[in-house]
Amino acid sequence: MMKRLVIQLARFGDIVQSKRLILSLLRDGEVHVCVDRSLASLARLVYPDCVVHAVPAHSCDARTVLEEGRTLFERLHTERFDEVYTLNNAGLCKAVASLFPPETVRGYSVRSGQVQRCRWMRMAFRWMALRRCSPLNLADFWAALAPAPLSPALVNPPAAPGGKGLGIVLAGQVWHRSAPPEALALLTRIQAERLGGAGKCPVYLLGTAKEHPAARELMSRLPGTIVETCRDLTGKTDWAALADVLSGLDLLLSPDTGTAHLAAHLGVPVMGLFCSSAWAWETGPYGLGHTILQTDLPCAPCVESSPCAQGVPCRAFFTDSDLLAYLAGKGKTARHFPQRVRILHSAFDEIGQIWREESGPPRGVPVPRVPSAGTREHDTRMRNALRAQLAEYLGLGGAHGTEAATLLYNESDWILPPLKP
Fold first, then answer.
1. What is the pTM of this model?
2. Phi, psi of 31 (to 5 degrees)
3. Which of 85, 152, 343, 395 has the most crowded Cβ, counting Cβ within 10 A?
4. In what order do the strands lie in the sheet with 114-117?
5. How many of the other CB atoms lie within 10 Å of CB of 286?
6. What is the distance between the alpha carbons of residues 107 and 86, in angstroms, rounded to a whole number?
7. Helix count (H) and strand count (E) of the chain?
8. Measured between alpha carbons, how far is residue 163 from residues 89, 140, 378 in Å?
9. Sign of the CA dihedral 17, 23, 25, 29?
Protein backbone atom coordinates (compact mmCIF):
# COMPACT_ATOMS: atom_id res chain seq x y z
CA MET A 1 0.00 0.00 0.00
CA MET A 2 1.34 3.39 -1.02
CA LYS A 3 1.32 6.37 1.33
CA ARG A 4 1.09 9.72 -0.43
CA LEU A 5 0.81 13.42 0.40
CA VAL A 6 -0.93 16.03 -1.77
CA ILE A 7 0.01 19.64 -0.99
CA GLN A 8 -2.79 21.91 -2.22
CA LEU A 9 -2.45 25.38 -0.72
CA ALA A 10 -4.61 27.31 -3.19
CA ARG A 11 -8.25 28.42 -2.99
CA PHE A 12 -11.67 26.82 -2.42
CA GLY A 13 -12.17 25.79 -6.04
CA ASP A 14 -8.69 24.29 -6.34
CA ILE A 15 -9.38 21.99 -3.38
CA VAL A 16 -12.34 20.49 -5.25
CA GLN A 17 -10.56 20.47 -8.61
CA SER A 18 -7.86 18.24 -7.13
CA LYS A 19 -10.47 15.47 -6.87
CA ARG A 20 -9.46 13.40 -9.90
CA LEU A 21 -5.85 13.27 -8.69
CA ILE A 22 -6.78 12.43 -5.10
CA LEU A 23 -9.29 9.73 -6.08
CA SER A 24 -6.68 8.24 -8.43
CA LEU A 25 -4.18 7.98 -5.58
CA LEU A 26 -6.74 6.58 -3.12
CA ARG A 27 -7.22 3.47 -5.25
CA ASP A 28 -3.98 1.89 -4.09
CA GLY A 29 -3.16 3.41 -0.76
CA GLU A 30 -3.43 6.08 1.91
CA VAL A 31 -3.65 9.76 0.95
CA HIS A 32 -2.88 12.78 3.11
CA VAL A 33 -3.93 16.26 1.97
CA CYS A 34 -2.27 19.46 3.19
CA VAL A 35 -4.43 22.60 2.85
CA ASP A 36 -4.82 26.06 4.33
CA ARG A 37 -6.44 25.87 7.76
CA SER A 38 -9.47 27.89 6.62
CA LEU A 39 -10.26 25.14 4.09
CA ALA A 40 -9.57 22.08 6.27
CA SER A 41 -13.22 21.36 7.07
CA LEU A 42 -14.07 21.68 3.37
CA ALA A 43 -11.30 19.21 2.48
CA ARG A 44 -12.60 16.73 5.06
CA LEU A 45 -16.10 17.12 3.61
CA VAL A 46 -14.98 16.47 0.03
CA TYR A 47 -12.34 13.83 0.89
CA PRO A 48 -13.64 11.86 3.89
CA ASP A 49 -11.23 8.99 3.19
CA CYS A 50 -8.13 11.22 3.39
CA VAL A 51 -6.08 12.49 6.31
CA VAL A 52 -6.27 16.30 6.19
CA HIS A 53 -3.48 18.51 7.55
CA ALA A 54 -4.22 22.21 8.14
CA VAL A 55 -1.49 24.83 7.85
CA PRO A 56 -1.59 28.63 8.12
CA ALA A 57 -1.14 29.66 4.48
CA HIS A 58 -3.66 32.36 3.55
CA SER A 59 -3.83 35.92 4.91
CA CYS A 60 -0.89 35.59 7.28
CA ASP A 61 2.74 36.66 7.30
CA ALA A 62 5.82 34.46 7.21
CA ARG A 63 6.32 34.67 10.97
CA THR A 64 2.82 33.34 11.62
CA VAL A 65 3.38 30.52 9.14
CA LEU A 66 6.59 29.48 10.86
CA GLU A 67 5.41 29.87 14.46
CA GLU A 68 1.97 28.31 14.09
CA GLY A 69 2.84 25.76 11.44
CA ARG A 70 6.09 24.50 12.91
CA THR A 71 4.60 21.52 14.73
CA LEU A 72 2.76 20.31 11.65
CA PHE A 73 5.79 20.81 9.40
CA GLU A 74 7.90 18.75 11.80
CA ARG A 75 5.27 16.00 11.85
CA LEU A 76 5.06 15.92 8.05
CA HIS A 77 8.85 15.76 7.86
CA THR A 78 8.91 12.65 10.03
CA GLU A 79 6.16 10.91 8.02
CA ARG A 80 7.46 8.44 5.48
CA PHE A 81 5.54 9.25 2.31
CA ASP A 82 6.24 7.18 -0.78
CA GLU A 83 5.24 10.09 -3.00
CA VAL A 84 4.52 13.79 -2.47
CA TYR A 85 2.50 15.88 -4.94
CA THR A 86 3.13 19.64 -4.83
CA LEU A 87 0.47 21.38 -6.94
CA ASN A 88 1.03 25.11 -6.54
CA ASN A 89 3.59 27.53 -7.90
CA ALA A 90 3.74 29.32 -4.57
CA GLY A 91 6.56 29.91 -2.13
CA LEU A 92 5.03 28.05 0.82
CA CYS A 93 4.16 25.02 -1.30
CA LYS A 94 7.76 24.81 -2.50
CA ALA A 95 9.04 25.32 1.04
CA VAL A 96 6.96 22.39 2.26
CA ALA A 97 8.26 20.34 -0.68
CA SER A 98 11.80 20.87 0.66
CA LEU A 99 10.89 18.72 3.69
CA PHE A 100 10.96 15.60 1.52
CA PRO A 101 13.56 13.80 -0.57
CA PRO A 102 13.31 15.34 -4.08
CA GLU A 103 13.11 11.92 -5.74
CA THR A 104 9.74 11.35 -4.02
CA VAL A 105 8.23 14.68 -5.12
CA ARG A 106 6.08 15.18 -8.22
CA GLY A 107 5.35 18.71 -9.35
CA TYR A 108 7.64 21.26 -7.68
CA SER A 109 10.64 19.78 -5.86
CA VAL A 110 13.66 21.32 -4.14
CA ARG A 111 17.08 19.87 -4.91
CA SER A 112 20.20 21.33 -3.24
CA GLY A 113 18.23 24.45 -2.40
CA GLN A 114 17.03 24.95 -5.98
CA VAL A 115 13.36 24.72 -6.98
CA GLN A 116 12.79 22.38 -9.91
CA ARG A 117 9.70 21.73 -11.98
CA CYS A 118 9.00 18.29 -13.37
CA ARG A 119 8.62 17.96 -17.14
CA TRP A 120 4.81 18.01 -16.95
CA MET A 121 4.88 21.31 -15.06
CA ARG A 122 7.38 22.79 -17.52
CA MET A 123 5.15 21.83 -20.43
CA ALA A 124 2.18 23.45 -18.72
CA PHE A 125 3.99 26.77 -18.42
CA ARG A 126 4.51 26.68 -22.18
CA TRP A 127 0.90 26.03 -23.12
CA MET A 128 -0.31 28.59 -20.56
CA ALA A 129 1.22 31.21 -22.83
CA LEU A 130 -1.50 30.21 -25.33
CA ARG A 131 -4.52 30.47 -23.04
CA ARG A 132 -7.06 30.88 -25.83
CA CYS A 133 -6.01 27.38 -26.94
CA SER A 134 -5.88 25.92 -23.42
CA PRO A 135 -5.85 22.13 -23.89
CA LEU A 136 -6.62 20.82 -20.40
CA ASN A 137 -9.03 21.33 -17.55
CA LEU A 138 -7.11 21.99 -14.35
CA ALA A 139 -8.54 18.81 -12.79
CA ASP A 140 -7.08 16.74 -15.64
CA PHE A 141 -3.76 18.57 -15.51
CA TRP A 142 -3.23 17.67 -11.86
CA ALA A 143 -4.59 14.15 -12.36
CA ALA A 144 -1.91 13.48 -15.00
CA LEU A 145 0.70 13.60 -12.24
CA ALA A 146 -0.71 10.32 -10.89
CA PRO A 147 0.76 7.03 -12.18
CA ALA A 148 -2.70 5.86 -13.35
CA PRO A 149 -5.38 8.59 -13.46
CA LEU A 150 -8.95 7.57 -12.70
CA SER A 151 -11.35 7.59 -15.65
CA PRO A 152 -12.78 11.13 -15.94
CA ALA A 153 -16.33 9.75 -16.00
CA LEU A 154 -15.84 8.32 -12.48
CA VAL A 155 -14.80 11.56 -10.77
CA ASN A 156 -18.15 13.31 -10.31
CA PRO A 157 -21.69 11.96 -10.71
CA PRO A 158 -23.50 13.00 -13.90
CA ALA A 159 -25.36 16.20 -13.09
CA ALA A 160 -29.15 15.97 -12.95
CA PRO A 161 -31.92 18.20 -11.57
CA GLY A 162 -32.88 17.27 -8.02
CA GLY A 163 -36.20 19.11 -7.72
CA LYS A 164 -35.10 21.53 -5.00
CA GLY A 165 -35.00 24.76 -7.00
CA LEU A 166 -32.51 27.31 -8.30
CA GLY A 167 -29.26 28.40 -6.69
CA ILE A 168 -27.66 31.77 -7.47
CA VAL A 169 -24.03 32.52 -6.64
CA LEU A 170 -24.00 36.30 -6.49
CA ALA A 171 -20.35 36.99 -7.25
CA GLY A 172 -16.92 35.53 -7.78
CA GLN A 173 -13.83 36.42 -5.80
CA VAL A 174 -13.19 39.44 -8.05
CA TRP A 175 -16.03 41.57 -9.41
CA HIS A 176 -14.90 41.60 -13.03
CA ARG A 177 -15.40 37.83 -13.27
CA SER A 178 -19.08 38.17 -12.29
CA ALA A 179 -22.19 39.03 -14.27
CA PRO A 180 -23.55 42.55 -13.60
CA PRO A 181 -26.72 42.78 -11.45
CA GLU A 182 -29.04 43.51 -14.37
CA ALA A 183 -27.82 40.43 -16.23
CA LEU A 184 -28.08 38.21 -13.15
CA ALA A 185 -31.66 39.37 -12.60
CA LEU A 186 -32.65 38.60 -16.20
CA LEU A 187 -31.01 35.17 -16.11
CA THR A 188 -32.63 34.40 -12.74
CA ARG A 189 -36.07 35.21 -14.14
CA ILE A 190 -35.51 33.00 -17.18
CA GLN A 191 -34.30 30.01 -15.16
CA ALA A 192 -36.97 30.35 -12.45
CA GLU A 193 -39.64 30.38 -15.16
CA ARG A 194 -38.09 27.35 -16.83
CA LEU A 195 -37.97 25.44 -13.53
CA GLY A 196 -41.63 25.79 -12.66
CA GLY A 197 -42.64 29.38 -13.05
CA ALA A 198 -42.40 32.57 -11.00
CA GLY A 199 -43.59 31.99 -7.46
CA LYS A 200 -43.20 28.21 -7.69
CA CYS A 201 -39.44 27.73 -7.96
CA PRO A 202 -37.46 28.22 -4.71
CA VAL A 203 -34.44 30.47 -5.22
CA TYR A 204 -31.39 30.33 -2.93
CA LEU A 205 -29.01 33.32 -2.92
CA LEU A 206 -25.49 32.22 -2.03
CA GLY A 207 -22.32 34.03 -1.07
CA THR A 208 -20.33 35.37 1.84
CA ALA A 209 -21.54 38.16 4.11
CA LYS A 210 -19.97 40.76 1.82
CA GLU A 211 -22.42 39.67 -0.92
CA HIS A 212 -25.45 40.58 1.21
CA PRO A 213 -25.83 43.98 -0.53
CA ALA A 214 -25.67 42.18 -3.87
CA ALA A 215 -28.49 39.89 -2.72
CA ARG A 216 -30.65 42.89 -1.84
CA GLU A 217 -29.91 44.53 -5.18
CA LEU A 218 -30.77 41.36 -7.09
CA MET A 219 -34.10 41.04 -5.29
CA SER A 220 -34.87 44.69 -6.05
CA ARG A 221 -34.65 43.82 -9.75
CA LEU A 222 -36.85 40.72 -9.56
CA PRO A 223 -40.65 40.54 -9.72
CA GLY A 224 -42.39 40.15 -6.37
CA THR A 225 -43.52 36.62 -7.15
CA ILE A 226 -39.88 35.49 -7.40
CA VAL A 227 -38.74 37.56 -4.43
CA GLU A 228 -41.29 35.74 -2.28
CA THR A 229 -39.51 32.45 -3.01
CA CYS A 230 -35.98 33.81 -2.43
CA ARG A 231 -33.92 32.76 0.58
CA ASP A 232 -30.97 35.08 1.21
CA LEU A 233 -28.29 32.78 2.63
CA THR A 234 -25.34 35.15 2.15
CA GLY A 235 -22.97 34.79 5.08
CA LYS A 236 -25.16 32.14 6.71
CA THR A 237 -23.59 28.88 5.52
CA ASP A 238 -20.48 27.05 6.66
CA TRP A 239 -19.01 24.40 4.35
CA ALA A 240 -21.39 21.66 5.51
CA ALA A 241 -24.44 23.92 5.27
CA LEU A 242 -23.40 25.09 1.81
CA ALA A 243 -23.13 21.50 0.61
CA ASP A 244 -26.54 20.77 2.13
CA VAL A 245 -28.12 23.72 0.29
CA LEU A 246 -26.51 22.74 -3.00
CA SER A 247 -27.53 19.08 -2.80
CA GLY A 248 -30.67 18.46 -4.82
CA LEU A 249 -30.82 21.78 -6.65
CA ASP A 250 -32.18 21.75 -10.18
CA LEU A 251 -29.56 24.24 -11.33
CA LEU A 252 -26.82 26.47 -9.95
CA LEU A 253 -26.22 29.76 -11.77
CA SER A 254 -22.69 30.87 -10.95
CA PRO A 255 -19.51 32.60 -12.12
CA ASP A 256 -16.31 30.58 -12.02
CA THR A 257 -16.35 29.89 -8.27
CA GLY A 258 -15.52 27.22 -5.75
CA THR A 259 -19.24 26.86 -5.09
CA ALA A 260 -19.75 25.84 -8.72
CA HIS A 261 -17.06 23.17 -8.38
CA LEU A 262 -18.63 21.93 -5.15
CA ALA A 263 -21.98 21.68 -6.94
CA ALA A 264 -20.36 19.61 -9.70
CA HIS A 265 -18.85 17.38 -7.00
CA LEU A 266 -22.40 16.80 -5.73
CA GLY A 267 -23.93 16.14 -9.17
CA VAL A 268 -25.79 19.45 -9.39
CA PRO A 269 -26.13 20.97 -12.89
CA VAL A 270 -24.16 24.19 -13.22
CA MET A 271 -24.74 27.01 -15.67
CA GLY A 272 -21.45 28.90 -15.53
CA LEU A 273 -21.28 32.60 -16.36
CA PHE A 274 -17.68 32.95 -17.54
CA CYS A 275 -16.16 36.28 -18.52
CA SER A 276 -12.94 38.22 -18.08
CA SER A 277 -10.17 35.86 -16.92
CA ALA A 278 -12.47 32.84 -16.45
CA TRP A 279 -12.00 30.36 -19.30
CA ALA A 280 -14.16 27.27 -19.64
CA TRP A 281 -11.43 25.05 -21.06
CA GLU A 282 -9.29 25.63 -17.96
CA THR A 283 -11.65 25.70 -14.99
CA GLY A 284 -15.13 24.70 -16.14
CA PRO A 285 -17.24 22.60 -13.72
CA TYR A 286 -16.10 18.99 -13.99
CA GLY A 287 -18.47 16.26 -15.14
CA LEU A 288 -21.37 15.67 -17.50
CA GLY A 289 -24.51 17.80 -17.55
CA HIS A 290 -23.02 21.29 -17.18
CA THR A 291 -23.34 24.35 -19.42
CA ILE A 292 -21.14 27.42 -19.67
CA LEU A 293 -22.02 30.80 -21.15
CA GLN A 294 -18.55 31.95 -22.21
CA THR A 295 -18.16 35.57 -23.26
CA ASP A 296 -15.48 35.93 -25.88
CA LEU A 297 -13.54 38.97 -27.07
CA PRO A 298 -10.16 38.85 -28.85
CA CYS A 299 -8.56 39.86 -25.52
CA ALA A 300 -10.06 36.88 -23.67
CA PRO A 301 -9.07 35.34 -21.39
CA CYS A 302 -7.34 38.20 -19.61
CA VAL A 303 -5.19 38.17 -16.49
CA GLU A 304 -7.21 38.30 -13.28
CA SER A 305 -4.85 40.70 -11.53
CA SER A 306 -4.61 43.18 -14.42
CA PRO A 307 -7.07 46.10 -14.73
CA CYS A 308 -9.09 46.33 -17.93
CA ALA A 309 -8.59 49.61 -19.79
CA GLN A 310 -11.92 49.07 -21.58
CA GLY A 311 -14.07 48.72 -18.47
CA VAL A 312 -14.59 44.95 -18.80
CA PRO A 313 -17.09 45.07 -21.71
CA CYS A 314 -17.41 41.28 -21.73
CA ARG A 315 -19.60 41.43 -18.59
CA ALA A 316 -22.31 43.23 -20.54
CA PHE A 317 -22.62 40.38 -23.04
CA PHE A 318 -24.87 38.46 -20.63
CA THR A 319 -27.65 40.96 -21.41
CA ASP A 320 -27.42 40.24 -25.15
CA SER A 321 -31.01 40.05 -26.44
CA ASP A 322 -30.28 37.07 -28.71
CA LEU A 323 -28.79 35.14 -25.79
CA LEU A 324 -31.71 35.89 -23.47
CA ALA A 325 -34.28 34.96 -26.14
CA TYR A 326 -32.46 31.71 -26.82
CA LEU A 327 -32.22 30.75 -23.15
CA ALA A 328 -35.89 31.57 -22.67
CA GLY A 329 -36.75 28.92 -25.25
CA LYS A 330 -37.41 31.33 -28.08
CA GLY A 331 -34.42 30.27 -30.10
CA LYS A 332 -36.45 29.25 -33.12
CA THR A 333 -38.08 32.65 -33.35
CA ALA A 334 -35.08 34.76 -32.35
CA ARG A 335 -33.54 36.76 -35.17
CA HIS A 336 -30.08 35.36 -34.55
CA PHE A 337 -28.33 32.64 -32.62
CA PRO A 338 -26.22 34.25 -29.84
CA GLN A 339 -22.89 35.34 -31.29
CA ARG A 340 -21.14 37.22 -28.50
CA VAL A 341 -21.57 34.47 -25.91
CA ARG A 342 -20.53 30.89 -26.63
CA ILE A 343 -22.85 28.18 -25.30
CA LEU A 344 -20.74 25.19 -24.23
CA HIS A 345 -21.79 21.77 -22.95
CA SER A 346 -19.54 19.45 -20.96
CA ALA A 347 -18.33 16.14 -22.37
CA PHE A 348 -15.33 13.80 -22.05
CA ASP A 349 -12.65 12.32 -24.27
CA GLU A 350 -9.79 9.96 -23.37
CA ILE A 351 -7.84 12.72 -21.59
CA GLY A 352 -10.69 14.28 -19.64
CA GLN A 353 -13.09 17.22 -19.79
CA ILE A 354 -13.94 18.83 -23.12
CA TRP A 355 -16.58 21.37 -24.15
CA ARG A 356 -18.87 20.96 -27.15
CA GLU A 357 -20.09 24.23 -28.57
CA GLU A 358 -23.72 24.73 -29.44
CA SER A 359 -24.10 26.54 -32.74
CA GLY A 360 -26.82 28.02 -34.88
CA PRO A 361 -27.24 28.90 -38.53
CA PRO A 362 -24.42 31.04 -39.99
CA ARG A 363 -25.00 34.75 -40.37
CA GLY A 364 -23.65 35.01 -43.89
CA VAL A 365 -19.99 35.29 -42.86
CA PRO A 366 -17.90 32.60 -44.58
CA VAL A 367 -15.36 30.69 -42.49
CA PRO A 368 -11.89 31.08 -44.04
CA ARG A 369 -10.11 27.96 -45.25
CA VAL A 370 -7.06 28.75 -43.14
CA PRO A 371 -8.28 30.38 -39.92
CA SER A 372 -6.17 33.31 -38.76
CA ALA A 373 -4.63 33.42 -35.29
CA GLY A 374 -7.07 34.56 -32.62
CA THR A 375 -10.22 33.31 -34.37
CA ARG A 376 -12.42 30.64 -32.81
CA GLU A 377 -11.62 28.24 -35.64
CA HIS A 378 -7.88 28.73 -35.15
CA ASP A 379 -8.17 28.32 -31.38
CA THR A 380 -10.16 25.10 -31.75
CA ARG A 381 -7.69 23.67 -34.26
CA MET A 382 -4.73 24.46 -32.01
CA ARG A 383 -6.51 23.14 -28.92
CA ASN A 384 -7.20 19.84 -30.68
CA ALA A 385 -3.57 19.66 -31.86
CA LEU A 386 -2.29 20.27 -28.34
CA ARG A 387 -4.62 17.66 -26.88
CA ALA A 388 -3.52 15.12 -29.48
CA GLN A 389 0.13 15.77 -28.60
CA LEU A 390 -0.60 15.50 -24.88
CA ALA A 391 -2.55 12.28 -25.44
CA GLU A 392 0.54 10.83 -27.08
CA TYR A 393 2.73 12.03 -24.23
CA LEU A 394 0.38 10.39 -21.71
CA GLY A 395 0.33 7.10 -23.61
CA LEU A 396 -3.25 7.48 -24.82
CA GLY A 397 -2.60 7.48 -28.55
CA GLY A 398 -2.93 10.76 -30.40
CA ALA A 399 -1.06 12.33 -33.26
CA HIS A 400 2.70 12.27 -33.65
CA GLY A 401 4.78 15.14 -34.97
CA THR A 402 2.04 17.80 -35.02
CA GLU A 403 2.85 21.49 -34.94
CA ALA A 404 1.94 21.40 -31.27
CA ALA A 405 5.14 19.48 -30.51
CA THR A 406 7.28 22.57 -31.05
CA LEU A 407 5.09 24.45 -28.56
CA LEU A 408 5.21 21.79 -25.84
CA TYR A 409 8.81 20.55 -25.98
CA ASN A 410 12.22 22.18 -25.59
CA GLU A 411 15.59 20.57 -26.24
CA SER A 412 16.23 20.62 -22.50
CA ASP A 413 13.42 18.08 -22.09
CA TRP A 414 15.63 15.34 -23.48
CA ILE A 415 19.15 16.79 -23.15
CA LEU A 416 18.97 17.14 -19.35
CA PRO A 417 18.48 14.16 -17.04
CA PRO A 418 14.73 13.49 -16.89
CA LEU A 419 12.72 14.32 -13.81
CA LYS A 420 9.56 12.45 -12.89
CA PRO A 421 6.62 13.32 -15.18
1. 0.94
2. -125, 130
3. 85
4. 51-55, 29-36, 2-7, 83-86, 105-111, 114-117
5. 27
6. 5
7. 17, 14
8. 41, 30, 41
9. positive
